[in-house]
Recover the amino acids of this structure.
DNA sequence: GTCTATACTGTGATAGAC
DNA sequence: GTCTATCACAGTATAGAC
């Protein structure tokens, strides 16, 4: 990109400093809370004064945005690492996907809060930061497609089931396994639903 | 309670002013966001200056606490209004309960956010404000008990299913019906689960 | 280029006059 | 009870030292 190797080196240095700041921001968010840590706290953590942070991020919201992007890339990587249904079968594949989601949620509740519980005052993620989330969703759609799920209703059902487990686990049994241990049951329910409703009917004729 | 009718009248006046302030707080929360409105905004809404609010609430957190208590009493009332399974049958009863929860969530998303998505910075509700939530949960436990659900696993499954639908609906289709329309399916899945697993086994021998 | 000192605005909260 | 004045602290803008 840059015309000289000098400015390329500067660019790399800037990127490294940005990473340092982001890592410190994650630490502070996990220690004090996502919205509790201050720009002065964060600056002190990396050996700066608050105004210096604005050389690397346009503001606190931009830091949240970069954290959101980082978290979403980690989530996308976790989804990409899932074995496909063709390799291990539909049931094992769905169980793996659900477990991965629960693991992702419980491993770092603050990250889960940032990514999946839109909870920061006036902030919302930029389209670029959100892009990996869309990609992960599309990947999950393909994943389910291989198991025979093609209708939107079943896909919505799947997201409701998994997000319900994750939310309850994080909110009501942090660090525990109460809802995590329901994953197998939930997958079997989902599979039963597919068997009875292969094309996602609207149930007009239900008794 | 008070020794004189004069102080009783004062107490009633204070309670009325508290209600006025709370109503204005709900309005502002719905307009600007739960954590966005300021004490000065709120005071102006009721014709006061900010410091006067501290005569009625010890601080902003106390206002959140009173709002939380109010919201939870409304939720408890909604749960109490549900027809029991003995009157309309298990399936209709569960559908009614789930629909009521989704309605409660979508009718006032800000209230849902306050009650069910613990999202305010350092705040958490007082035990007194939380008490109606426990009562509603116990009522729901009785509700499910009549339909034959007595084990904790199935109860946890039920809360995961309904909260998953509600969260997805509020987060991804506010004002719409996408997850709301899945209630009947989810109830049928839940009932199928009960049929196959009447005592909430731990599935040690599952193939 | 990178960082600092300084300062501005707005927040929740408090002290004390009336 | 309600006010004015003020506090400490937040995020952030700017000007300039090195």
């Amino acid at each position: 990109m840059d015309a000289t190797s000098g400015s390329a080196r500067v660019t790399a240095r800037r990127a490294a400093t940005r990473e340092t700041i982001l890592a410190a921001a994650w630490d502070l968010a996990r220690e004090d809370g996502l919205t509790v840590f201050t720009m002065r706290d964060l600056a002190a953590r990396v050996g700066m004064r608050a105004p210096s942070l604005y050389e690397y991020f346009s503001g606190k919201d931009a830091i949240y945005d970069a954290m959101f992007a980082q978290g979403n890339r980690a989530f996308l990587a976790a989804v990409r690492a899932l074995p496909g249904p063709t390799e291990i079968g539909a049931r094992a594949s769905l169980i793996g996907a659900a477990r991965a989601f629960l693991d992702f949620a419980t491993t770092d509740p603050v990250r889960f809060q940032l990514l999946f519980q839109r909870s920061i005052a006036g902030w919302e993620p930029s389209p670029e930061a959100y892009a990996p989330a869309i990609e992960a969703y599309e990947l999950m759609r393909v994943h389910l497609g291989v198991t025979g799920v093609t209708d939107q209703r079943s896909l919505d059902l799947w997201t409701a089931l998994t997000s319900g487990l994750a939310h309850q686990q994080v909110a009501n049994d942090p660090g525990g396994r109460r809802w995590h241990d329901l994953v197998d049951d939930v997958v079997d329910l989902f599979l039963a639903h597919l068997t009875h409703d292969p094309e996602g009917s609207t149930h007009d004729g239900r008794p």
About this structure: Chain A is about 70% helix and 0% strand. Residues 38-40, 50-51, 54, 59-60 of chain A lie near DNA strand D (CB under 10 Å from a C1'). Residues 200-207 of chain A have pLDDT under 50 and may be disordered.
